[in-house]
Amino acid sequence: MAELASRDINLYVNAVSRTMTSKGVTKQITDDFWASDIAPILHPMWDSDRDRMESFARYADGFTVINKIKYQRDRKTGEYKWVSYELSLEGIEQSELDSLYERLNAKFIEFRGIIDQDLEQQLSVTFAKDHIITWTKILMVRKFLLDESDYTQMADYTGSDEDKAMWVTYRQKLRDLPEDQQGLPTNSVRFPINPTKYKLMVDEERTTADYLTDLEGHYYNISRSVLHKFASKMVAYLTIAIQSGNIDEMPNLQPAKTEANTLDAILEVIEQGGFD
Questions:
Q1: Chosen domain end from 114, 138, 160
Q2: Region class of 18: left (phi > 0), else alpha (psi between -120 and 50), else beta
Q3: Could you tell me if 63 and 74 are in contact, meaning their C-beta atoms sit under 8 angstroms apart?
Q4: DSSP characters over 74-108
């Protein structure tokens, strides 16, 4: 079993808990989808009333392990109980195992697409009607602004030394934002303008101060228009983050004080102001 544990698994199906895992992604299969799409694949060859499928594991090298549970009589006590055992695959054609894997994997991909699309749609609706500024949104906007300015730190960036210095200052201000403005009401948090905006203001003679030294003119508050600009990115980012649990410098994106990472719980947490 230690040898098996060291192998990469392409697909793992737990028929008892009705979960499926592929490439590190685990999905809790709904009862309706299991009954309509998974059960017909397993029954009657791999799953029956008295000899049920317990788990299915398909490894990257094509090796397959199937565990089952059988309802049988204990010879000593005379009582019937469920007993777990590993199914012997001798006599079973490899093509049959390949077909089982391919059909189950196809259903996993189908189910994941349905769930992820539903999550993204629900998040879109939530963000469309929610204009409240939260630290979750502030941190996401901060991340996107850093991502958008990554190119200025590349070796082939053609800006002047002055431009490069301003971009370094800008990015550091963004990184320091959570600590520098900790404790402020979220609608009072201010973001630095980027060097491109600053140079435009200089050209239009709207500022004479050095970059980011004017605390009023060189900073701005998050507005509805800014949130709208980043809304689609936020939805896509949260969809991925919720599935993985943690991304980059963002906080652990799991619903606080909930027993299950359900869509309703996620949306409730967003409405209450963000994640822990």
A1: 114
A2: left
A3: no
A4: -TTT--EEEEEEEPP-TTS-HHHHHHHHHHHHHHH
198 domain-assigned: yes
- Does residue 125 lie in a domain region? no
> Looking at the chain, which runs of residues are DSSP E strands?
9-14, 19-22, 25-28, 51-59, 64-73, 80-86, 190-192, 219-221
Query: Among 59, 80, 114, where does a domain finish?
Result: 114
Give me the number of domains the chain comprises. Answer: 2
**% helix / strand / coil in the chain, to the nearest 5?**
50, 15, 35
* pLDDT tens, N- to C-terminus, the chain (276 residues): 434 444 688 999 999 899 999 887 788 888 889 999 999 999 888 988 888 899 999 998 889 999 999 888 878 888 888 889 999 999 999 999 999 999 999 999 888 877 766 666 665 665 555 566 778 778 888 888 998 899 999 998 999 999 999 999 999 999 999 999 988 888 889 999 999 999 999 999 999 999 999 999 999 988 766 776 776 677 666 665 555 544 444 444 443 333 334 445 555 554 454 444
Residues 41 and 14 in one domain: yes
Range of the domain at 101: 2-114
Only one residue has tokens 């201000």, namely 173
Statement: the pTM of the whole predicted model exceeds 0.85: no
Q: Quickly count helices (H) and strands (E) in the chain.
A: 9, 8
Dig out the tokens for 163 from the structure: 């431009």
